[in-house]
Each structure stands twice: as C-alpha cells, then as structure tokens.
Amino acid sequence: MNTKHTVGLSSTEIAGLWATYINDSMSICLSKHFMQQSNNEDVKPIIQLTLDISQKHIEEIKNIFKKENFPIPKGFSDEDIDLSAPPLFFDLFPVSYVYGMSRLSMVNYSMLISNVAREDIRSFFSKCLTSTLDLYNTIVNVMLSKGIYDRPTMIPYPDKVEFINKKETFLSKWFE
Question: In the chain, is it the N or the C terminus that has fewer CB atoms within a 10 Å radius of its CB?
Fold first, then answer.
C-alpha cells in the first residue's frame, strides 16, 4: 500500500508567500507608474523586466494558494495608482529604486529558502532569488554605464602582511 502524505503550508511558508504577494503587487503598481513616466530608453527595459518578474511571482503564488484552498491576499491594484499623475521622481530614480529593492529581495529570498521545507515552496523562492539576481546584475550594469553606481570606498592595497606583536590588543587602544 502506497500512501502519500500531504503536508500543508507552514506558518513561515504562508508568511513568505503572503509578504511576497503584497510586495510584488506594490512593485507592479510602481512599475506601471514608472513605465508611464519614463522617457529614458535605457530605463524602460529594466522597468518592464521588473514588472514581468512581479507579475510572474503573483501568478505563481495565486496558483499555490488556490491548490491549498487558501485565500488570495488583497494586494495593491490599479485602483491604488493614478497613471495620469505627473512624475514624482527624476528619470533615473526607477533604476535606483529597483536596485535597492532587488538587494533587499535577494536577502529576503535567501532567508526564506533556508526556512521553508516544502519542495515546491523552496523551488518557488529559489526561482525568485535567481530572477532577482539577474535583475540586480542588469541594474548594476546600467548604473555603471550611467555613472550613478555608488561604489564602496576604495582603500590602498597593503604592500606587506603585518601582525600585532604587543600584549595590548588592537581594540584596547580604542577603549582608553
């Protein structure tokens, strides 16, 4: 006798899917606004890619929730945006915004993958991480080409390896 054991969604899986749904529904609204307002031909493909990724996530989460007979969250919608409103930001702001959000999303998806058990949910968040990483790399390349990527501080290379040989520690001088 072959019995298949069905495991429902854990609280972490529900919370991760729910939060992703809300975040991506907001991203769709912002992407539509950015697309409507942008005149920059280098920025529009990034906005479109962001919109496509968010829409795909929403559909996949809906499918997971439907299979589980779980209510679909009420996220943000077209009712929450006014596409005729004037631009609120300078033309490269969408790139900076998507850059920041993709950085946060990569951390979030990594954390979720390490805290969910169901294979289908791990697979979903793994795909989310991969698509967000691809988006991030695209954004960084555009930012570098536009001269708006804020690189971390550069430091001079050391010319030799040094060790601290005194009994007092390196940090003890800070506490004097």
Answer: N
Question: How far is the C-alpha of 78 from the C-alpha of 57, rounded, in Å?
Answer: 17
Residues 6 or more apart whose CB falls under 8 angstroms from that of 42 comprise 142, 145, 146
Dist CA 84 CA 89 (whole Å): 14
Q: Is 3 exposed, middle or buried (0-12, 13-18, 19+ CB in 10 A)?
A: exposed
Q: Which two tokens stand for residue 59?
A: 């559909």
pLDDT given at position 91 = 82
Question: Which positions ≥6 away from 40 have C-beta within 8 Å?
Answer: 91, 92
Domain 11-175, CATH class in plain words: mainly alpha
Its pTM stands at 0.84
In this structure, what token pair is assigned to residue 118?
């169901």
| 109 Cβ neighbours under 8 A, 6+ residues apart | 125, 126, 128, 129, 132
Could you read off the pLDDT of 37-47 as tens digits, one per residue?
888 888 999 99
Residue 49 neighbours by CB under 8 Å, 6+ apart: 135, 138
For 81-140, the pLDDT digits (tens) are 998 888 877 888 999 999 999 999 999 999 999 999 999 999 999 999 999 999 999 999
